[in-house]
Amino acid sequence: MLMGKAGQESFRSITRSYYRGAAGALLVYDITRRETFNHLTSWLEDARQHSSSNMVIMLIGNKSDLESRRDVKREEGEAFAREHGLIFMETSAKTACNVEEAFINTAKEIYRKIQQGLFDVHNEANGIKIGPQQSISTSLGPSASQQNCRDLGSDAGCC
Fold this sequence. Notes:
Radius of gyration: 17 Å
Family: Belongs to the small GTPase superfamily. Rab family.
Keywords: GTP-binding, Nucleotide-binding
Helix content: 40-55%
GO molecular function, one term: GTP binding
CATH superfamily: P-loop containing nucleotide triphosphate hydrolases
Region (Disordered): 136-159
Strand content: 5-15%
Pfam families: Ras
Distance between the termini: 23 Å
């Protein structure tokens, strides 16, 4: 979601239209680049200003596979998320560690808010559209993302 300074402002004006009608958002920063973390407050203000107060926002620290190049401590991401009422995870898009879980956890939180009556599922302006009803199957094995986290070893910092 974050870009270099040259294209950042024009990108922001485009993204503002996507916030309207969104039930959830992933706010992503690069754990190896502090400047991306430093811009989170501005991006979060944008998201909250242009969206429903019930929108679920998950904070993602990406590139957890690059622990040796880490510039933002996990605890800093956790503290920012706690302070702003966000869900927090670290992921690695390269290895797929926790990527699937980030989307699943966001969807679970949206579903929880639907059950609480905070989203009207009959009003598509809330960013939710009910599709055809299907049975939900569960997998007994680990997801591909969980397996990739295990492949990295216990010091990968993402699981």
